[in-house]
Design brief:
The complex is a heterodimer of chains A (about 260) and B (about 240). Chain A is an all-alpha fold. In chain A, about 75% of the residues lie in helices and about 0% in strands. The N and C termini of chain A lie far apart (about 60 Å). With about 240 residues, chain B is of the alpha/beta class. In chain B, the strands form two sheets. Chain B has a six-stranded mixed beta sheet with strand order 6-7-8-3-9-10, with helices on both faces. A four-stranded antiparallel beta sheet of chain B has the order 2-1-4-5, with helices on one face. In chain B, helix 6 packs parallel to helix 7. Classes of the chains: A mainly alpha (about 260), B alpha/beta (about 240).
Chain lengths: ~260, ~240
């Protein structure tokens, strides 16, 4: 009991140090992104409460039936869509867009990997691996929509010139979609490229620590990262299909303007 | 070219500011233009000149009023069809990345067509841009880019061409080159144009009619010598 209390105390101190460090760094960079500074303390507080709650739920669920993973992952998808919605300012009906994209993109890839046995269908693996996939998909989709909004606002003249020449909204938006799609997937590709050289991700470290062969752990880490990439790319592909009708009116007029 | 039946007709066209209902950007604007005629739209900044053009090819939606093209209510046309029939040149050229040729074939390619290299060469030569086909469109000067933008709008063979101050962002030499190109194209192709301009001299030179707007309303409408003489302010 004393050991548990000691490790909990140590963990909390570590969290406070890490949280303060992030705040100091953002404070130094406040002129570059003034809007982010007030967001970070709340994001940190929210993050730590959520992750501790999930840790407690996981400890409880580890002994539960496999089907429990489905509502848990569905809840994560819902929460991820809500976070994306908040980032996707000025894009109409962003919640259904984000929800449908993540559900179809991340959901399909996770289901495929689970059905083929690549991700073992045990709750202890499905939930943490699923959460990694959903969280990365959420980040990628937020980046995609944010970049797309920036591209549209920066290139309003080109988009409206294309419309004025009789182009379909999809065609007028294509350069912006390409730029956003490329930019949002760069971090995922760089993660795969730098695997083992720049970073040894947590899941691999955990597997090695729990006694799994380091080579198998390494291969599995590759599987997880490429799954993350596939889910993120498919999600953004679906979003790129859905977003056009939210950026243009039914009369093919650009709605998102500076 | 003598005026005949009305090609472009605008009846009580109005648009409210989307974020501020009750505030009109344009109110009860009416005019009619026969095939081959040029209408100059003049007025101070914020008078609603660009708003009028944007509603004519439906980049913006009118709150009320009717636009007829050759007798047909443009609301009954698909936006893409309308925009191919009513072309538009904006204040800045907004050329797409790629070559001058790729910019010129953009419009036709949207309806599954293309332009023959000879057609492109001939179009470019007509505005003094011989051998510009392979040039990077984003490296052109302002005047060159605007001339390419005008040709790009004409590749759809529009019945009406809307010109939104096409020379206002250019220096004097470039303005002259674009004006000459436009005057040549309007004369040789018998273009029907709605030309928004800040220059009275330009309006006198090219227009059959002048529409003077002020604070979103029609201040006067008629022949250039009537409207421009009666105007107290600078257009």
């Amino acid at each position: 009991m004393n050991h548990l209390f000691g490790s909990l105390q140590r963990g909390l101190i570590d969290c406070v140090i890490a949280g303060i460090l992030a705040l100091i760094i953002l404070l130094l960079a406040r002129r570059r992104a003034p809007g982010l500074l007030p967001e970070l303390p709340f994001a940190e507080l929210r993050g730590i409460v959520q992750i501790v709650a999930v840790g407690m739920i996981l400890a409880f669920l580890l002994h539960g039936p496999r089907w429990v993973a489905v509502p848990v992952l569905a809840g994560m998808i819902l929460a991820a869509a809500d976070i994306v919605r908040r980032r996707a300012q000025r894009i109409r009906q962003a919640m259904p867009l984000a929800l449908l994209s993540i559900l179809c993109g991340a959901g399909l890839v996770l289901t495929l990997m689970a059905v083929t046995g690549v991700i073992p269908m045990t709750i202890a693996i499905l939930v943490p691996v699923g959460s990694m996939v959903i969280a990365n998909t959420m980040n990628t989709l937020s980046l995609f929509l944010d970049r797309l909004r920036g591209e549209v606002i920066a290139h309003t003249g080109e988009i409206e010139s294309a419309l004025a020449l009789g182009a379909a909204p999809e065609s007028a938006l294509a350069p912006g979609l390409q730029a956003a799609f490329r930019a949002c997937l760069i971090p995922s590709i760089d993660n795969i490229r730098s695997l083992g050289i720049v970073w040894i991700p947590g899941i691999m470290a955990g597997m090695v620590l729990s006694g799994t062969s380091p080579v198998f752990a390494a291969l599995y880490q590759f599987v997880v990262l490429t799954t993350i990439f596939s889910a993120a790319a498919l999600t953004c592909l679906i979003a790129s299909r859905l977003v056009t009708r939210r950026v243009f009116s039914e009369h093919e007029q650009l709605l998102l303007r500076a | 070219m003598p005026p005949n039946s009305s090609l472009l007709q605008c009846e009580n066209l109005s648009r409210e500011a989307p974020a501020r209902p009750g505030l009109f950007l344009l109110q009860d604007v009416s005019f009619s233009l026969a095939r081959g005629e040029v209408l100059a739209v003049v007025g101070p900044s914020g008078a609603g000149k660009s708003t009028l053009l944007r509603m004519l090819n439906r980049l913006d939606e009118p709150t009320s009023g009717v636009v007829r093209l050759d007798g047909q209510d443009t609301q009954s046309l698909a936006p893409r069809t309308l925009r191919r029939r009513i072309g538009m040149v904006m204040q800045r050229a907004y050329l797409f990345p790629g070559t001058v040729s790729s910019n010129l074939v953009f419009g036709p390619s949207q309806r599954g067509e293309t332009l023959a290299p000879e057609q492109i060469a001939s179009m470019l030569a007509s505005v003094g841009l011989e051998s510009y086909e392979g040039r990077d469109a984003l490296t052109l000067s302002g005047g060159e880019a605007q001339r390419v933008a005008i040709l790009r709008a004409l590749t759809n063979n529009p019945e009406v061409l809307l010109l939104d101050e096409p020379t206002s962002a250019l220096d004097a030499a470039a303005r002259d080159s674009v004006e000459h190109a436009l005057e040549f194209l309007i004369t040789t192709r018998h273009l029907t144009c709605v030309w928004v301009t800040h220059s009275e001299e330009q309006a006198r030179k090219v227009a059959h009619h002048v529409l003077a707007l002020e604070a979103g309303r029609v201040r006067s409408w008629g022949a250039p010598e009537q409207v421009l003489v009666n105007r107290g302010d600078s257009a």
